[in-house]
Specification:
Distance between the termini: 42 Å
Number of domains: 2
Number of strands: 11
Order of helices and strands: EHEEEEEHHEEEHHHHHEEHHH
Number of helices: 11
Largest sheet: 7 strands, mixed
């Protein structure tokens, strides 16, 4: 349901208003590539970006962060939790990354609540911008049903007409949360959609469906069953011979959420911090446990584990696909291991 029509100029003015009370994160161009980075004003953002090298995940789930401090007191320890609650607004998030954030929300809020993530998330406002066509070659977001964002953003903006790179650009806006609704309506921004706007929005969505090619010739819902039948496939060993176990795929993935924790002491050895940092299942020692046993010592078993998590296990546990088809893992892989090729080759084996 279409809620509002905003010009590009008015959207940027809203972002500048947010900058008075929040950190602003969004796509910034560096030479010929785009990165999510902090900016001081909306004019520094490039909302016409096609593809950010990394997702905005690190602004909600940092690669490195302290969890709590501790101090020895009378043969015991006093601990103090460390939370980052600075308000921030993440602007220009594409549907794949909105869906990735939605998965992180689900993972960190259920079963074992992670208040460090949830504190950041409660203080974050997400403004999404839809993709009318694939943002770059190799993405398979439509196959993973992640090129549409129906939840996860406070505002979702759809480019309707005009030149979006100028003030004449118009966005159809859908409110995702009450916070998003209040942001727009309290500022009296934009206009109520007309019948013509509703028709233009329907036309936009219809045209978009024809722009995304099918990369995987079978429904994503069938991937868990396909993987069930492919556990002993020779493809894992054949593909993993190229793998360097560098973890680039994990570190570039917007839905990977594994981490390791460690304690760092100060010079007195009586105080310090517990910290966490991203970890990755493709790293050789990821599954190493006390006693020196490694549950996945071979690159083939680690590769299989990652694919199973993304297309089967996370989906079965969380009810949400563990892969959003952004292809960042494929682009980051120096060995050119490709997820789509793996799925298609497994299907061909049958």
């Amino acid at each position: 349901m279409l809620d509002r029509i905003l010009t590009r100029k008015r959207l940027l003015e809203l972002v500048d208003q947010l900058a008075l009370s929040r950190k602003i994160i969004g796509p910034v161009r560096r030479k010929d590539r785009y990165f999510y980075d902090r900016v001081d004003r909306a004019g520094e953002l490039d909302l016409d970006f096609n593809y950010c090298i990394y997702s905005p995940k690190a602004f909600l789930f940092p690669a490195y962060e302290p969890l709590f401090s501790f101090q020895r007191v009378n043969r015991s320890f006093k601990t103090t939790a460390i939370y980052e609650d600075t308000p921030q607004a993440i602007v220009g998030v594409h549907p794949c990354d909105v869906n990735a954030i939605r998965l992180l929300d689900h993972v960190f809020a259920n079963q074992h609540r992670d208040e460090h993530y949830l504190t950041r998330r409660r203080n974050a406002l997400i403004i999404g911008i839809d993709c009318p066509k694939p943002c770059t070659e190799g993405v398979f977001c439509q196959d993973m049903k992640a090129n549409e964002a129906t939840a996860g953003a406070d505002l979702m903006c759809y480019p309707l007409s005009g030149d979006e790179s100028t003030d004449d650009g118009r966005y159809a806006v859908v409110f995702g949360t009450e916070q998003g609704r209040e942001l727009v309506l309290y500022a009296q921004a934009g206009e109520s959609p007309t019948v013509h706007d509703e028709r233009a929005f329907d036309t936009y969505k219809a045209q978009k469906q024809g722009e995304f090619p099918q990369m995987i010739p079978h429904d994503v819902d069938s991937l868990p069953d396909l993987l069930n039948r492919s556990y002993d496939s020779l493809l894992w060993e054949a593909t993993a011979r190229r793998c360097y176990s560098c973890g680039s795929c994990n570190l570039s993935c917007p839905t990977c959420y594994c981490f390791n924790t460690y304690d760092e002491l100060d010079m007195s050895l009586k105080a310090g911090e517990r910290r966490r940092e991203w970890d990755g299942c493709q790293l050789t020692n990821f599954a190493l446990v006390a006693g020196g046993h490694n549950f996945r010592p071979k690159a083939s078993s680690r590769l299989r584990h990652r694919i199973y998590r993304k297309a089967k296990w996370i989906r079965e546990r969380e009810g949400i696909p563990g892969c959003v088809g952004c292809a960042r893992c494929d682009r980051a892989c120096t060995a050119k291991i490709n997820s789509v090729e793996i799925y298609n080759q497994l299907a061909e084996e049958e």
